[in-house]
Specification:
The protein is mainly alpha-helical and 494 residues long. It folds into 2 domains: 189 residues, Fumarase C, Chain B, domain 1 (Orthogonal Bundle), CATH 1.10.275; 292 residues, Up-down Bundle (Fumarase C, Chain A, domain 2). The chain contains 19 helices and 9 strands. The relative contact order is 0.12. This is Histidine ammonia-lyase.
């Protein structure tokens, strides 16, 4: 499969490229790229002072660079900005960043040559993954610089499971190291493609997890005999929310025909909030997701290179602006991280209700021989620890602030940090929901004589039991958790 870049891309398209699809840049897009490159040539020829073209960058923006050294400036920007640290980004995240950067160039306001875009597209086609450290970016510069290194024959990349130098990777693709021209170094490190690409992958994972969250919650509701009256369509409509309505419909559909739910009807006046408020919490997360996704799509539709090249070859214009700063993008990632952290915390509370003999009505800790076995006792500890991690990660990055570049950059929005935190929250949430899924299935194993499961929940029970046997303290539970988390990430809920 190939994603076509002509007029623009949305987050789903970027995520598809991240997961392995190639990106085809149309001739219309290349014509826009060529036009901006021609405008850049005209600006260079005129010699009017222009940021990052014939001046330094950041606090050095008033330092003029003569025409003979503008290419040297571009190369130096890439080398000096490649100072990321820490663990490397995964291949899908790097691919998404490259795709978002190509989309930004394709708007036709950056001035890079088509060769740069063509080579980046070849990286995606041949699955050449530049080594990009995950940490060290207050905005976007360091991540993008590490990708740009490979274009000029520096840095490192992975291809076919091998770690290669940048020059070796280019040779593998029959490409030569590029000699950068005026502004191209700045364009390669500039813009919000890093945070945007990471956010696209986070949205893809979040959409998948939200579907699983509803499905797993339904399995738990059935195991504890949840009271379905709270989920009636007319009742939920009292709080207008697309998300609440979607979650309520999902729960009703999945639990339709449940003998266990029918047998428990009227057993309690109302359920605990971790059960009764599933539509409200999961629905809120879905509503936040929709807002965050719209902000990411708006970012992909935006020109985020500074400066932007406008006008015509005859009358070239250059606009120094702040579109490379992305407060909305950081706030979107922060908001979604909070929403995911909250529903994961609710999941852990449901795990506790399944394993806690004071409220479950089930064998203590879901152990088949309580006392000699601990069952899921410590799995709930693990979920609680991950909830604590998420609580810390949910602190917003977009309010961190900071000062860089000799007071020239005295406002920082931290969108990349926010996107990285969101990905970390999703990691933890996937584990928490995997633990709930395992615990709910184990609980159902004790309920087989009390009534039939709904078809929708029986499918979830069967899927897990095809991969994981009932637990009786006969193996390390960590292995099961890892396997179920992988299953959750790879499969759609039946």
């Amino acid at each position: 499969m190939t994603v076509l870049l002509d007029g623009g891309l949305d987050w789903r398209s970027i995520a598809r490229v991240g997961k392995g699809e190639a990106l085809h840049v149309s001739e219309n897009a290349y014509e826009r790229i060529d036009r901006a490159s021609q405008i850049l040539d005209a600006i260079v020829a005129v010699g009017v002072r222009a940021y990052g073209i014939n001046t330094g960058v950041g606090a050095l923006s008033d330092t003029v660079v003569d025409r003979t050294t503008q290419g040297k400036l571009s190369r130096g920007i890439v080398l000096s900005h490649a100072c990321g640290i820490g663990p490397h980004l995964d291949a899908p995240e790097v691919r998404a960043i490259i795709a978002a950067q190509i989309a930004n160039f394709a708007h036709g306001y950056s001035g890079v040559r088509r060769e740069i875009v063509a080579n980046l597209s070849t990286f995606l086609e041949r699955d050449c993954i530049p080594i990009v450290p995950s940490r060290g970016s207050a905005g976007y510069l360091t991540h993008n610089a590490h990708t740009a290194l490979v274009l000029i024959g520096e840095g490192q990349a992975r291809m076919g499971g091998r770690l290669l130098s940048g020059r070796e990777a280019l040779a593998e693709m029959s490409l030569e190291p590029l000699v950068l021209g005026a502004k191209e170094g700045l364009s390669l490190v500039n813009g919000t493609s890093c945070a945007t690409g990471l956010s696209c992958m986070a949205l893809n994972r979040a959409a998948h997890l939200l579907d699983w969250a509803d499905a797993i919650a339904a399995l738990t509701l059935e195991a504890v005999g949840g009271q379905m009256d709270a989920f009636n369509e007319s009742v939920l409509a009292l709080r207008p929310s697309k998300g609440i309505a979607e979650v309520g419909a999902s729960l009703r559909t999945r639990l339709q025909g449940s003998g266990l739910i029918a047998a428990a009807h009227g057993k309690r006046t109302q359920d605990a909030l971790s059960l009764r408020a599933v539509p409200q919490a999961h629905g809120a997360a879905r509503d936040v997701f929709e807002i965050s996704a719209s902000i990411v799509n708006r970012e992909l539709a935006s020109v985020t290179d500074n400066p932007a090249l406008m006008g015509t070859v005859e009358q070239p214009l250059i606009a120094s602006q702040a579109h490379a700063v992305a407060p909305a993008l950081g706030q979107a990632a922060d908001s979604l991280a909070i929403a995911i952290a909250q529903i994961a915390a609710m999941s852990e509370r449901r795990v506790d209700r399944l394993v806690n003999p004071l409220v479950s009505g089930l064998p203590p800790f879901l152990a088949s021989d309580a006392g000699t076995q601990s069952g899921f006792m410590i799995a709930q500890y693990t979920a609680a620890a991950l909830v604590g991690d998420n609580r810390r990660l949910a602190a917003p990055a977009s309010t961190d602030g900071g000062l860089t570049s000799g007071l020239q950059e005295d406002f920082l929005a931290h969108p990349t940090a926010a996107a990285n935190k969101l990905l970390a929250v999703l990691d933890n949430a996937e584990y928490i929901f995997a633990i709930e899924w395992m615990a709910a299935v184990q609980a159902h194993d004790f309920l087989s004589d009390l009534g039939d499961r709904a078809a929708g929940t029986n499918a979830l029970h069967r899927m897990l039991r095809e991969h994981v046997l009932p637990y009786s303290d006969d193996r390390p539970l960590a292995m099961d958790i890892e396997g179920v988390r992988a299953l959750l990430r790879e499969k759609e809920p039946l």
